[in-house]
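Exam revision sheet. Question 4 asks you to relate a sequence to its structure. Input first:
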Amino acid sequence: MKTIGLSDVIGPIMVGPSSSHTAGALRIAYMARRLCLAEPKTVEFRLLGSFAHTLTGHGTDKALVAGMLGLAADDLRIRDSFQLAGDAGLAFSFVTLPDEEYDHPNTIDMRIVDAAGNAMSVRGESIGGGAAVIRKIDDIDVRITGESTSIVVRQRDETGVLAHIAQSISDEGVNIATTRMYRERKGDIAYTVLETDQEVDGAAKAAIEDHPAILDVRVIPGDARPGCGSVDAPDAEEALQRFAEADFGTGAALLAWCEKHGTTLSEAFLAREAALAESLGYADRSLAYLHETLDVMKCAAQRPIDEALPSMGGLIGGEARKLADLRERDGELCDDQLSCAIAYAMDVKAIGTMNVEFYSGIGETLEPQLLPPLMDVSAMDGKRVLVVDDVADSGKTLKMVMDLIDEHGLTLDGSAAVRVEARSAVIYKKPVSIIEPDYVWAHTDKWINFPWSTLPVIKP
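Answer key, structure tokens:
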């Protein structure tokens, strides 16, 4: 069983709403880029399984393009990747294949042509927590995780080639951690994938290429961040002993450890991380990782407050800046705490609209009905949804929507229903409302004139 560390719990240092559908998608495209023999010029992304439904809402499209450009998962330019691709001369397209067969629900096929005219097909899977695996190269099954530095060698399957590769790497002082060879048939084209304990420089790559059966060599850097390389552990056994004592199995054990050593909870976890790293022969940088994670999160959340930016999903843009302005209006609509919370949240959550109105004749009001345009709900399956209305007057409109979601799921566009966990929020609630919303800003029995109801439509 794998030992779980802080980074496994907190996840990758990243920008975007989903480690699997944003960071994982970026990682797949990044590794595919490193497999190219020249700068990629055109790429077709073919999205299968859940990726076919989260293309836009989770920023999967922007993340894929960002990865193909070589951006890291914590690069704040990910939201601008389409523009950056245009500047770099990278043409891209997306094809969603929700009914295509796949082995893993988070699967992407890529068809790439580089600047030298080389064409390549790559299949990748996002396996959770920002991690990804390359599963196919040109229809040959492989397994490339990118956790450590990976060398991918395309070769003719001949005697002595593997020995040449191993000797070339060893001569450059690089230790091989794992080696796997993949081929469709004996004597045909094969791929050898090696993971190493050290980085691989140009000299090692050139040494491998110096063989008539070697067709090409690609090097994919590992996931390790700067300063996370291997170190000489002075006493691995002592580090293992410290880790065993600090590997808290229960809350009571954690508290007992803190009392024994006179530490805080955070210091206890940092001690555990340090012992784990030393026992594995790696430099401990858990504190730096935590600071870096917090810095990226703060920057990603704060930037849309300072300037109008589209969300990663592209469904909204500039609302975070507008909501932040409410703080300067003396609580006219939202108090300081609520306006801040909404402003931050609106940058990272997707949003859609449902048009529910009362049909009115002269002096009469009928039951509420749904009007077009209808919302695409395909990406909402299993998600948590907040249904927001300006006022629960009679409450019939809000109740109809909540009953619809509770009894049937969301199926507004004619597709199969998806199940969601839904709560409701309103600005005002009146005493006669037949529904009790989960969140209410204020209660009133007065008639309310909202600006979006009384003021004329703004036209360009």
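Marking note for examiners. Residues 225-231, 411-415 have pLDDT under 50 and may be disordered.
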